[in-house]
Design goal:
Blueprint: E1 9-12, E2 14-17, E3 20-27, H1 45-74, H2 76-89, H3 92-103, H4 108-123, H5 129-132, H6 134-149, E4 164-168, H7 173-181, E5 186-189, H8 197-205, E6 209-211, E7 225-229, E8 234-237, H9 241-262, E9 278-283, H10 289-294, E10 300-304, H11 307-310, H12 318-332, E11 336-340, H13 346-349, H14 369-375, H15 377-390, E12 395-400, H16 406-425, E13 435-440, H17 443-447, H18 449-453, E14 458-461, H19 463-471, H20 489-504, E15 508-511, H21 519-528, E16 532-535, H22 540-548, H23 552-564, H24 568-579
Helix pairs in contact: 1-2, 1-6, 2-6, 3-4, 4-6, 7-8, 12-15, 14-15, 14-16, 15-16, 21-22, 21-23
């Protein structure tokens, strides 16, 4: 029985970009990276190396065209995705090893395949999801090289129409952008994760997407009916008429809801009995500010500064930090911009020429974030000076990540004071009273939040790490991910401890983890006393709508009931009861 004989075939993947798309499959079959074995005579080896170099030149030109398109569509920071591909193409390992294989009498195609295989195997050993996903970028570049070596035409998505849902093994960021130009409804891929470049572009373009489906390309045919549910991370092949009608209703409801939510853009996030909270956005680059303002945020609760380090070969300078942060601060005035100092591991920074650090057995708990900055204060000071200088252009605040003990805050502040002294000597202005905050994402500081609160101006809870460290659960491990529970009694009590500690010290407490952007948790967090919610910009209207529809009194009652619960079943019962009041 073929897939076309069955209805409602449900495939589960990774929700890469929210929304629901209903349409017809456009099967985009990209070139495979195939091993081509061919012996090259000694007298033709130089010609073969020349052929490789010509393919590299053509591929570089293609990548530069992609860069222009990404810049036009999404801005300079997303165009740096193409920069990353150029860096891969220029990698000495790729060129040197490929030439060495050709000198042994192998074809250029064989050399590219073998070198790519070697590099991707090394990437498979990396623990960090973001960097592990870069394996697909390497394969994308290798496929382009292969195509140019073989003189094949570039495959395009020119035949797409407005009903198309693209299904492919993988999609490059430039493919994703071209989808937007013809208003494709959504896409689904065999490979990829939430942090893949393609997923990030899809989120920015607001195209519903599910990735990591493993073998969807082998289960579909061109023109097959398909539903992509980017909210739940599922794809339905050959949906029945009833399923299509149900999803059509859901799609229409979501569209109508979104239209109504847009009306909330300029309204405050205030409960029906007058309690107002701050709704901020999480961003990675200045180009995202347009979306932040469009969705009605009143601040940047988390500016992830790592993006400045990930698509280059050298460390960013003080001037680059200053320019980048100033742009955001000016655009967001008078709202706050909380800049988190770099949260990267030493193995990533070493690639930028700072130091030579070997592969760590457990990088998530190794030399990263504030630990890295304290070990290499010059690296830290360069960023701090850039942030300080940008503070004259807006309401800028500094936040230290992965604090595990109070001594780290004090050491970081010592380096901050050194940066201030240097700037004064240089005659450069900055906000002398710039506020300093700590991310509460390690259980050790959550337990002593009352001590931490006295040392900082504000605190922000990073629930992603706090939950997985507290629960000892790797949330991207499919075998144990079900144990990752934001409403576990221990997590609720820990959140209450942190928020109360902040308030007792007269400090505000925010949250910048995924939990803050989930409507199902909003009322409980409000009742626990959270002052600021920071999330993906697209989630802001949804959270604002929830907050404006409830009283602070009811939210507190819900939180108090949840804190009395001893297990998840009891918690679910309280929430269900609350919904039906």
């Amino acid at each position: 029985m073929t897939p076309n004989d069955k209805t409602n075939i449900i495939l589960t993947g990774v929700p890469a970009s929210p929304g629901v798309a209903i349409g017809k499959v456009f099967l985009f079959e990209d070139d495979e990276l195939v091993l081509i074995e061919k012996t090259i005579p000694k007298n033709k080896i130089k010609d073969e190396i020349t052929r490789l170099n010509q393919a590299i030149v053509k591929t570089k030109a293609e990548l530069q065209e992609n860069q222009v398109e990404l810049n036009k569509m999404l801005g300079k920071s997303y165009a740096k995705i193409a920069d990353a591909h150029v860096l891969i193409l220029n990698d000495p390992m790729l060129n040197k090893d490929a030439v060495a294989l050709i000198n042994e009498g192998n074809s250029a195609e064989f050399a590219i395949y073998k070198v790519t295989e070697k590099i991707t195997k090394a990437f498979d050993l990396i623990d960090d999801e973001y960097f592990r996903e870069r394996k697909h970028d390497i394969v994308d570049v290798a496929k382009k090289l292969m195509r140019h070596l073989q003189g094949k035409q570039k495959k395009t998505l020119a035949d797409l129409d407005s009903e198309s849902i693209v299904v492919s093994k993988n999609l490059t960021p430039s493919d994703t952008v071209s989808m937007r130009e013809v208003m494709v409804r959504g896409f689904a891929t065999d490979t990829g994760g939430k942090t893949s470049h393609t997923a990030l572009v899809a989120q920015s373009l607001e195209i519903p997407a599910v990735v990591g489906l493993k073998n969807i390309t082998s289960q579909v045919s061109h023109g097959m009916s398909i539903i992509v549910d980017g909210n739940q991370g599922i794809v339905i092949l050959n949906p029945s008429k009833e399923t299509q009608e149900n999803y059509k209703r859901e799609h229409d409801i979501q569209a109508a809801t979104q239209k109504n939510l847009e009306k909330l853009k300029d309204l405050p996030a205030t409960t029906i009995d007058g309690k107002e909270v701050v709704l901020g956005a999480n961003i990675e680059n200045p180009e995202e500010v347009r979306s932040v303002l469009k969705h009605g945020a009143n601040g940047i609760g988390l500016y992830r500064s790592e993006f400045m380090y990930l698509t280059r070969k050298t460390l960013p300078t003080e001037e680059e930090h200053f320019s980048n942060y100033s742009k955001v601060a000016k655009m967001m005035m008078p709202y706050e911009v909380i800049i988190r100092t770099i949260d990267l591991g030493g193995d990533k920074i070493s690639k930028l020429g700072l130091m030579n650090i070997g592969q760590e057995a457990n990088p998530f708990m190794g030399l990263r974030a504030i630990r890295l900055c304290l070990k290499y204060p010059d690296l830290f000071k360069t960023q701090l000076k850039g942030i300080l200088r940008a503070s004259v252009n807006g309401n800028v605040k500094i936040m230290y990540p992965m604090i595990s003990q109070i001594e780290e805050i004090r050491q970081a502040n010592d380096i901050l004071n050194q940066a201030k002294i240097e700037l004064r000597k240089e005659g450069k202005k900055f906000d002398e009273n710039i506020q300093i905050g700590a991310m509460i994402e390690v259980p050790s500081v959550a337990v002593v939040a009352d001590i931490i609160a006295k040392e900082v101006d504000f605190m922000s809870i990073g629930t992603n790490d706090l939950i997985q460290y507290t629960m000892a659960v790797d949330r991207v491990n499919e075998d144990v991910a079900f144990l990752y529970d934001p409403l576990h009694p221990a997590i609720l009590r820990l959140l209450k401890t942190i928020i109360d500690a902040g308030h007792n010290a007269g400090k505000s407490v925010g949250m910048c983890g995924e939990m803050a952007g989930s409507p199902e948790f909003s009322i409980a967090l409000l009742g626990l006393g959270l002052d600021e919610f920071s999330m993906s910009a697209i989630q802001i209207p949804k959270i604002k709508n929830v907050i404006r529809s409830v009283s602070m009194k009811d939210a507190k009652n819900l939180a108090n009931e949840l804190l009395k619960c001893s297990d998840r079943a009891a918690i679910s019962g309280v929430i269900k009861k609350f919904k039906y009041r």
